[in-house]
């Protein structure tokens, strides 16, 4: 399935962070002495924006059509950035969609310290002392642990993933976090990038197999195409209580 013309027309109108916000983001990404976090040493802010553009723009029509974005304006949409790392995707999304609460999920303590500093320096923390009201929350946890937590399981409107891991691992970690009707957005090689590959058909058939997704209550809704390097899956049913498994990396579902 490819992205419809109607969806693409919505994507064109996606809001953008202000020039001031982008300048602050650039300054923050340049602030660390550690090469792992000083991302400006490798890419400009424009290049960072281009790298995450497909995921950021794909969020827009989904937020417009979500229950919390229409009928329940008093509630925030809640989205998890799976394996946030240095926070480029999460921070750009948070600056683009200020009405959404983003949870930056990361298992490495040093990354979480960096993310926490970014939340403060970019003005993404709340004035309230209640953590749940913050625009951006940094969560130091493994994804499979969070998925089994009562305080997080089936409570998110969306999960986004960029370079988190294999498709089976990503789906198994994301599905338990999603409410029924929620979405999973995954950065995926576009069809155009696969056109010269002899395994192109194999990629489309195996990366997101129907049988594997059904075990997690997920359905493939939008496949990456020449227009967008993003695959979208929908939580059509609640994920089984047996997922996520603690050994999901060693034995992925697909």
In DSSP terms (H or I, runs of 4 or more residues), the helix count works out at: 11
Uncertain stretches of 5 or more adjacent residues: 1-12, 127-132
Structural class based on helices, strands and sheet pairing: alpha/beta
Helix content: 25-40%
Task: Please outline the helices and strands.
Layout: H1 5-12, H2 19-29, H3 45-65, H4 67-70, E1 78-82, H5 88-96, E2 101-106, H6 109-121, E3 136-140, H7 143-147, E4 156-161, H8 167-174, E5 178-187, H9 191-194, H10 200-206, H11 210-215, E6 218-222, E7 230-235
Parallel strand pairs: 1-2, 1-4, 2-3, 4-5
Antiparallel strand pairs: 5-7, 6-7
Helix pairs in contact: 1-3, 2-5, 3-5
Give the gist of this structure.
By secondary structure, the chain is an alpha/beta fold.
């Amino acid at each position: 399935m490819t992205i419809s013309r109607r969806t693409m027309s919505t994507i064109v109108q996606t809001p953008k962070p202000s020039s001031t916000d982008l300048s602050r983001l650039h300054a923050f990404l340049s602030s660390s002495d550690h090469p792992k976090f000083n991302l400006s040493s490798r890419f400009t802010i424009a290049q960072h924006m281009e790298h995450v553009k497909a995921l950021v723009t794909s969020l827009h029509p989904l937020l417009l059509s979500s229950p919390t974005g229409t009928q329940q304006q008093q509630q925030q949409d809640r989205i998890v950035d799976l394996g946030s790392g240095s926070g480029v995707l999460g921070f750009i999304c948070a600056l683009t969609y200020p009405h959404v609460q983003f949870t930056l999920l990361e298992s490495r303590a040093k990354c979480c310290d960096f993310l926490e500093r970014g939340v403060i320096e970019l003005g993404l923390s709340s004035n309230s002392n209640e953590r749940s009201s913050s625009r951006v929350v940094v969560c130091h946890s493994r994804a499979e642990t969070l998925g089994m937590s009562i305080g997080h399981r089936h409570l998110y409107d969306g999960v986004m993933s960029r370079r988190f891991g294999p498709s089976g691992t990503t789906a198994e970690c994301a599905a338990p976090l999603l409410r029924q009707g929620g979405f999973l957005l995954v950065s995926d090689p576009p069809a155009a990038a696969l056109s010269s590959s002899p395994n192109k058909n194999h990629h489309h058939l195996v990366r997101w197999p129907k049988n594997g997704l059904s075990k997690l209550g997920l359905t493939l809704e939008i496949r990456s195409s020449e227009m967008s390097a993003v695959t979208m899956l929908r939580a059509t049913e609640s994920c089984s209580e047996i997922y996520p498994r603690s050994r999901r990396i060693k034995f992925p579902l697909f």
